[in-house]
Amino acid sequence: MPVSPSERDVTIRLVVNDRAHQLDVDAGETLLGTLRERLGFTGPKEACWEGECGACTVLVDGGPVASCILAAGSTSGRVVRTVEGLAGAAELTTLQQAFVRHAAVQCGYCTPGVLMVLTALLDDVPEPTETDIRRALAGNICRCTGYQQIVEAALDAARAVQP
Predict the structure, then answer these.
(1) DSSP string over 61-83
(2) Residue 88, by phi and psi: left (phi above 0), alpha (psi -120 to 50) or beta?
(3) At what angle do helices 111-124 and 94-101 cross, to 10 degrees?
């Protein structure tokens, strides 16, 4: 006997960018689909659908995850942050400002995922080395910048927040 759509739905409660949400999602729905299609957060990008390129990276409970392969149902009770939730209304984060200064943004498609990975890194490792940054970026594909400007921006941001 086929399962009706209502029997496949899972009710999730999660916090996205400091705002609580409750919604019914299909058991097979990805977090990326929920964020983009249901909640309107278009920062995480659709690209490989295999968790290989990093364009869809968001933070879940502070850690970077590929939202294209994470089941939305598994995020109930968790805290999600997208690139839209990084800066306040008035000012970019130190990392975002460094990206502007170092021209670390080219086409911008990968930028949200890169920012999320580096935000998590800087939260965990306040004084990262270039090697730390490059390791953190290993799962993010950028076809425009060649990564050097991104690395320089991350190093600059780390120096800017040190006393």
Answers:
(1) TTEEEETTSSBGGGGTT-EEE-G
(2) beta
(3) 130
